[in-house]
Amino acid sequence: MTIFNIFQTTLYTISTALLVPVVALLILLCLWLFIYTGGFFGEWVKRKKMKLDRPLSEFLENIQKMGRLPDNVCAALPVHIVTYASNLENILKRSSCLKEEQIEDLNQKKENALLKGVDRIRLIVRIGPSLGLMGTLIPMGTGLAGLAQGNMSQLSSSLILAFTTTVVGIFLGISAHFFTVIKEQWMLEDMRRINLITEAMVKASDKGGPAGETL
């Protein structure tokens, strides 16, 4: 056996050994995406129901006067934005010379958390089709080896596995891309609202408003 044959056999062994993890990952990603889809449409329905009768910018004056979110605004915003506003209110009530840095830290942590939420589904856009391609090429090698030995049944089963993994991988990529686009729109809208709320509440504190009066 030549050294090239040894390399070829080694690579073939590694390639075929990857088939089981690839197929298992595709199945796990499908299950994860199924669960994620439920949460996504649940959030979609909530956001459809939670709409302000006027733009948030028209409530900024009230927010500035009160130093917190009015109840009608809280009811029309996602829970995580209300929680952010509550945390911001607590920071503004503290008597700290590093208040500005703490607000910046809170804002950046919130932005990172929203980005992570989008990145989690964005990974599937690349991973899904890549696993699908691996799941196509690996069985093709096995099938061709079976064809060389005249084993048509092995070729047939390998082709079925190759085509199904391709379809599943593409499905994962398309679905994840759809979710990514919508999640990015939600993230941008949420960050815009968070920044508006932060500006209003910080100005209230600077002017000695309700949040500042508690110092």
Automatic annotation (TrEMBL):
Similarity comment: family membership: Belongs to the exbB/tolQ family.
Organism: Desulfosarcina ovata subsp. ovata
Keyword Transmembrane helix recorded: yes
Ranges of residues in domain MotA/TolQ/ExbB proton channel: 101-180
Residue ranges of the TM segments: 12-41, 123-147, 159-182
GO aspect biological process, one term: protein import
Location (main, coarse): membrane
Subcellular location: Cell membrane; Membrane
Any one GO CC term of the record: plasma membrane
Alphabetized UniProt keyword annotations: Cell membrane, Membrane, Protein transport, Transmembrane, Transmembrane helix, Transport
Coiled coil (residue ranges): none
Record carries keyword Acetylation: no
Pfam families: MotA_ExbB
The name this protein goes by in its record: Membrane protein
Membrane topology reported for the UniProt record: Multi-pass membrane protein
